[in-house]
Amino acid sequence: MRLAETGNFSDPTGRVGVRHFGQGNDMAIMVGASIPLGSRTANRGNVARANAEAQAAEAEIAVTRVQVRREIDRLIAERATLATEIVRIEREVLPSAERAVVLVGDGFARGGTAFTFLEANQAQQAVVDARSRRVELLRRFHLNGARLDRLTGRHASLLASAENR
């Protein structure tokens, strides 16, 4: 903006030179100067364009801030949902699935037709599935945490101190 406004004023110029006259050895020193008398309106288009570009840049920054804030809010909400599901798996699903494995294993060990090998296998598979789901949810929880840290600049001070070493 200020660069465009500086175009409103032309720079004064000066000239110094030597002139040789064609007949004889006569010489003259010539001195000249010019101070432009331009008006401020001569550069109005460049100033207007610079103003428009500055406003466009400010609008783009504002849009980016809104998008970042929206992404931060989304990540916080998703992390809360993931944490709730992880806690539910740890407190409800895994204990009941592990209890089912013990009960089915005891019934299968006693023999008879109460439980088959397939049912014992399915009970164990339910525990494996619950643990796998928990690991996947933990992975997503921590990846979202890393994204959140990147967006909020949580560890930016650590980067700056590491660069100064």
UniProtKB/TrEMBL annotation:
GO terms of molecular function: efflux transmembrane transporter activity
Gene3D superfamilies: Outer membrane efflux proteins (OEP) (1.20.1600.10)
SUPFAM superfamilies listed in its UniProt record: Outer membrane efflux proteins (OEP) (SSF56954)
Keywords (A to Z) from UniProt: Coiled coil
Residues in coiled coil: 47-92
Stated family: Belongs to the outer membrane factor (OMF) (TC 1.B.17) family.
Classification via PANTHER family: BLR4935 PROTEIN, OUTER MEMBRANE CATION EFFLUX PROTEIN
The protein's name: Metal ion efflux outer membrane factor protein family
Organism from which the protein derives: Novosphingobium pentaromativorans US6-1
